[in-house]
Amino acid sequence: MQLIFEKGTPGRHCHLLGDCDVPVHEIGIRREKKLSLPELSENEISRHYTSLAKRAHGVNDGFYPLGSCTMKYNPKVNEEAASLEGFAGIHPLQPEHTVQGALKVLNLAETYLCEITGMDAMTFQPAAGAHGEFTGLLLIKAYHHSRGDEKRTKIIVPDSAHGTNPASATMAGYSVVSIPSREDGCVDLDKLKEAVGEDTAGLMLTNPNTVGLFDKNILEITRIVHEAGGLCYYDGANLNAVMGIVRPGDMGFDVIHLNLHKTFSTPHGGGGPGSGPVGCKELLKPFLPGFMVKTMEEHEDGSRAYSFAKMPESMGSVKMFYGNFAVVVKALAYIMTLGKEGIPEASSNAVLNANYMMNKLSDLYKMAYNETCMHEFVMTLEDLKHDINVSAMDIAKALLDYGIHPPTMYFPLIVHEALMVEPTETESRETLDEAIEVFRKIYETAKADPKRLHEAPLRTPVGRLDEVTAARKPVLRYMGE
């Protein structure tokens, strides 16, 4: 397929703007060379981008079991709500009395998400999950600083955590202490006890972790850290497995980030926008960033007036204004649609789907941890790689020929030749059965004709790419005339 820069004919165009009806003033800054843009008609442009769209794969195209990312269906009612003029047509600098509906959205979303997580307050400023991690760590830092406890310079991160955790801790100025997992995939308590001390600022924990397991010692883990004077941070990226069933705040966690673009069904992928709100217990509330919505007064008819306020010891802002507001609207629509009964049902169905699929494949594929999983499970292709030289990458590429997006490959790092599969609650049993049959067919092909898998995919617009060269020598711009 040609790039759009390789198409077009000189002089061909489509008029989008009329002639300028005001005087033109030069600003004194001009390009030395005329900008080289393709010259195409409107229908040529439309056909080009439609052709590109047909080559993209999303949850509206087929099964998308991307582990640890919760690529669930995005209900259209969310988009309708966010597109309402009262939400889409506002400006962040409008007077508060003209955006009372928007403030109520933020207030309601905070109330519901605090109830789901067991937290006391929440900020919507962070723009994505990793941004939320960074914000949560800055809250921990502000807390220790306010107490004059500057010796706490280390963050403990289990090796089963999300990969962004150690990066976020480093960005916040902390040293990272990695804790190994036991054979059962859970945190090694003995190693944790050895690691904590007067220099422990906190612990970052993903639960359920990246091997799809809920740590059975979760209360003991938070107790150990708290007794050492540290705080506990909960990576909420896997909350889809437990929302409405158990609450991180009740497990002993002091701060959490959520992925609205994962757990609460707002669009995920394609570059954004995301939303990574951070919730916290009362002891961290004074340090929250940006503006918080507060109730000014309650009227006789039950309505309320809302206003923005800053926390007394706020760390400042981590983003302009109030976060990605439209994403919050979509998440709130999802929460209110499901309600108190629907939220835990979604989690239960996610766990059911994962265990159903895992058990239907366990006679062929080796599971990294042979026990009941949460919302995702991890297979290890280490034996296949050793016996017939078929890798996790080969299996993933073969799935493309069947219209299935590959699961997460080679992660978590503690599992060799890993494939991490997350069949979300929005997938039907029929879809899961079809996917299971595909996995089984690919396994049989691997045994009978391993070379064929080395060449997969065979039926996609683009075949097996040289990913190493693409990563090391990327071509990021069109170099033609």
Protein architecture, described:
The chain is an alpha/beta fold and 481 residues long. The chain folds into two domains: 76-338, Type I PLP-dependent aspartate aminotransferase-like (Major domain) (Aspartate Aminotransferase, domain 2), CATH 3.40.640.10; 342-470, Alpha-Beta Complex (Aspartate Aminotransferase, domain 1), CATH 3.90.1150.10. The chain is built from 14 helices and twelve strands. It has helices spanning 42-55, 76-82, 85-88, 100-117, 129-146, 164-171, 189-195, 218-227, 325-361, 382-388, 392-400, 429-448, 450-455, 467-472, and strands at residues 121-123, 154-158, 175-179, 200-206, 231-235, 255-257, 278-280, 291-298, 304-310, 377-380, 408-409, 418-421. Strands 1-7-6-5-4-2-3 form a seven-stranded mixed beta sheet, with helices on both faces. Strands 10-12-11 form a three-stranded antiparallel beta sheet, with helices on one face. The longest helix has 37 residues, at 325-361. The model has no long low-confidence stretch (mean pLDDT 93).
